Amino acid sequence: MSAAERAIDNMTKAQAMPRIAPSGTAECPVGRVRIGVFFDGTNNSKQRDENVDARNPGTAENAPTNVVKLFQVYKTEGTVLKPIYHHGVGTDSHANGEGSSNTAYDWRGNAFGGGGKARVLWGLKQLEDFYSNNNNHLAKEKQYDTYGFSRGAAIARDFVNSVKTIGINNLQKRNGWKYRTVGRVVIREPAYEHHKGIVPTFLGVFDTVASFGLGGLDIGNDLAGYNLFVDHTYVERTVHMAAEDEIRSNFPLSSLFMDPADKNGFWASTRRAYQEPQDYKATMIELFYPGAHSDVGGGYIITPAIPAKPARTEYRAGPRGMPYKVTIPAEPYVPPKQPELALIPLRDMYKASKRAEVPLNNLTVSVPGDLEGWYNEYDGYRAGRPYAIGKQYIQMFPSKEYRTMYYDERDKLPAMINLKIHYIHDSRWGHDKFLGRKQRTVLYMGPQPKK
């Protein structure tokens, strides 16, 4: 059993209640309605990534993410149980994957997270329609589950908070009028009472990266109106899975355990404080996995091998056009990178969801044997070891002491060497020579459960 599975087993199991469709009468309001809301990752789209479109030049650059795979197994049952999906920022496919236009890439969304708030409002509207129609407003229990990856994880967390703070209109119960001003025009709109007793039963997020605006410059829990704080007294179960090998200088991770009373901090003197994770282990867990961003959230495709190149000599033009000889050293063969590392967090998130009684159909996850063995070796090494020094948050450049204590020994494991060769992808920021592979930011986290 992996560290993730042990942590999941330690969570208090959610109470189950048989779903009974509302009868449609006020005398029999018994029943449960439930909806799953899925926000995909940056530059990820179910429509685009599953259906290569010749019109769109970027359609083959990603595979379906773990969010998509969980969306596909969320159960549908008449009008009382359904999943809804929204493509990630940086793509232009329609919500729920219905169609796309002639471009597969939106640079503003991909670079700056544009369109994030619109997705939150879209989610609120979906809940409004779901809970208000088909007699669902008579249901005694109204529940929802939320999943997200990357900026979609940040959107998912803000969405859950928005349901709590803004509320969901009950379209069956008018409550006068409300007024709003657009420029110099006052618009009158119908007002409604809010649905009562809506419960966020499960929040499952992969590698939360907010970066709304310029990446890395603001990592607080309130980013330009985005509230990433997870209230353990409101959300019944929360699971956050993060990438241990992502370079965070421009791709910062937002922990579940941020202190809501702390202010945003960029410099060392103002780095974030964190709540004690162990205080919330019954309802919230945060687990790290080997790999980069999409090695956890999914979406990588097979990276082709790079052939070996022998040493060679070239003549180049020098000053005044005089040629000079340059010897270029041999370049070794680089094997292809496989995408299956993301199956391990997918499997664990699925198990966590099932333990929380999320209505999912069967999901078959086949992890290659070599990967399973290497991951088990890594997991055995990691068990009981913390990820960072005390409650210190490392923002930009981890110290040599930190790297020595928490990475150097790990990176010498035969399992890690093999994982890096065959499965762990280069971070999206790793090609910049200014950023070395060692410059990783890992948030404070308590030790994973021991075997």
UniProtKB/TrEMBL annotation:
Region (Disordered): 41-61
Domain of life: Bacteria
Positions of the T6SS Phospholipase effector Tle1-like catalytic domain: 35-300
Any one Pfam family match given in the protein's UniProt record, by short name: T6SS_Tle1-like_cat
Protein name: T6SS Phospholipase effector Tle1-like catalytic domain-containing protein
Species whose genome carries this gene: Chondromyces crocatus
